[in-house]
Amino acid sequence: MRAQPTLLLCLTTFSLSAFSVAHAESGLASYYGYGKAARNGELTCAHRTRPFGSVLRVSYSGRTIQCRVNDRGPFIRGRIVDLSVPAARALGMMSAGVVRVSVE
């Protein structure tokens, strides 16, 4: 009987860690200067699958921003998120154009 609580604890820990990893992505990001305008300088982005209105944490080169999904995309192979110009500026990626980011 003693092995059952230990097994249950291991399964619960595994399930929680698998859940948090499922929502993290790493890949290329670009920015766009067209489409829907952000309200009041809000940081926005386009993502293929995340629900509209959800907030993503995007990290690059030691900086992290929070941006709201308000569009679909990117539609270029290998890219995981498109950022608005204000979001790209806040992240410090304007001169690079396309960078590797982490998205949560």
Structure explained in plain terms:
It is a single chain. By secondary structure, this protein is an alpha/beta fold. The chain has one domain (25-103): Barwin-like endoglucanases, CATH 2.40.40. The protein has two helices and six strands; from the N terminus they run H-E-E-E-E-E-H-E. It has a six-stranded mixed β-barrel.
Q: What is the rounded Rg?
A: 17 Å
Output the CATH homologous superfamily.
RlpA-like domain
- By CATH reckoning, the class would read Mainly Beta
List how many beta strands DSSP finds. 6
End-to-end gap:
39 Å
Descriptive labels:
single chain; 104 residues; alpha/beta; 6-stranded mixed beta barrel; 6 strands; globular
Record the SSE blueprint.
Elements: H1 3-22, E1 25-32, E2 44-46, E3 55-60, E4 63-71, E5 79-84, H2 85-91, E6 99-103
Parallel strand pairs: 1-5, 2-4
Antiparallel strand pairs: 1-6, 2-5, 3-4, 3-6
